[in-house]
TrEMBL record:
Keywords tagged on the record: ATP-binding, Nucleotide-binding
Gene name of the record: phoH
Ranges for domain PhoH-like protein: 57-261
Cellular compartments per GO CC: cytosol
Organism: Salmonella enterica
Similarity section: Belongs to the PhoH family.
Pfam family of the protein (one): PhoH
PANTHER family registered for this protein in UniProt: PROTEIN PHOH (PTHR30473:SF3)
GO molecular-function terms, A-Z: ATP binding
Classification of source organism: Bacteria, Pseudomonadati, Pseudomonadota, Gammaproteobacteria, Enterobacterales
Name of the molecule in the record: Phosphate starvation-inducible protein PhoH
Transmembrane segments: none
């Protein structure tokens, strides 16, 4: 019975759309092909925005399990190692869940962008649009875990529950009641890392992700991530997680490529 009703409603909608288009064509002095009218009237509705993914955040291997435990229990977690191990995905997913659970008021995601300002100047749009491609992986995870509509709301400047910003924007600020993620941390200098870590106030979880083997800093400049790993030791407040090539979960081909370059 429900199927018949839906069918009748679609027929009624097509007839109504056809009549509107025909009336409009007469007013403007031209005729619209009836085939085009039928195609427009019967076109499927636009797909709704992707729904929020409420599936549990689960570890796929032992390294990820240790990582999730650290994120749950430590104020500061350093995660280093190979690409494709889920460092960014898990950190962002955990941050999104904490925002949904109202454990924090805000998510801040940042990363250094080692590209000349004059090159970025040629890109269209404002500052957020220029840097958007660098943050696409994080945005995709947030969209999946928060849902498109809620993410759009959180990104509004007057709401600012989610902030995705270049690393240069971190200077001079203090973060509280937030999850703060520094991605691609191998590309910050020692002084920049110190500046970042001393921005943190109360009720803040700091997640620092990177791969020292992919450092793009000049050869005579030490990576702030490498330096931090030498300075910090595991403690009740600090977690150090290292991912290896065998921990790759992106794909079997990615794992083969990582092992080929060991």
């Amino acid at each position: 019975m429900k199927g018949i009703n839906m069918g009748n409603k679609r027929k009624q909608a097509r007839r109504a759309a056809r009549q509107v288009l025909k009336n409009k064509s007469r007013i403007n002095g031209y005729e619209i092909d009836t085939i085009i009218v039928d195609e427009l009237a019967s076109a499927p509705a636009l797909s709704p925005k992707p729904k929020r993914d409420n599936s549990p955040i689960e570890a796929l291997n032992e390294a990820q399990a240790h990582y999730l435990i650290s994120l749950d229990n430590k104020a500061l977690t350093f995660a280093t190692g190979e690409a494709g191990c889920g460092k960014t995905y898990l950190a962002t997913a955990v941050a999104a869940q904490r925002l949904l659970d109202k454990e924090v008021d805000k998510i801040i995601v940042t990363r250094p962008v080692l590209q000349a300002e004059e090159d970025l100047g040629f890109l269209p749009g404002d500052i957020s649009e220029k840097f958007a491609p660098f943050f696409r992986p994080v945005y995709d995870v947030l969209q999946k875990r928060l849902g498109s509509s809620f993410l759009e709301y959180c990104l509004k400047p007057d709401v600012a529950k989610v902030e995705i910003a270049p690393f240069a924007y971190m200077r001079g600020r203090t973060f509280e009641n937030a999850v703060v993620i520094l991605d691609e941390a191998q590309n910050v200098t020692v002084s920049q890392m110190k500046m970042f870590l001393t921005r943190m106030g109360e009720n803040v979880t700091v997640i620092v992700n990177g791969d020292i083997t992919q450092c793009d800093l000049p050869g005579n400049v030490k990576s702030g991530l490498e330096d931090a790993l030498e300075r910090f030791q595991p403690s009740s407040q600090v977690g150090l997680i290292e991912f290896m090539a065998e921990d790759c979960v992106r794909s079997e081909l990615c794992k083969i490529a990582l092992e080929a370059y060991l």
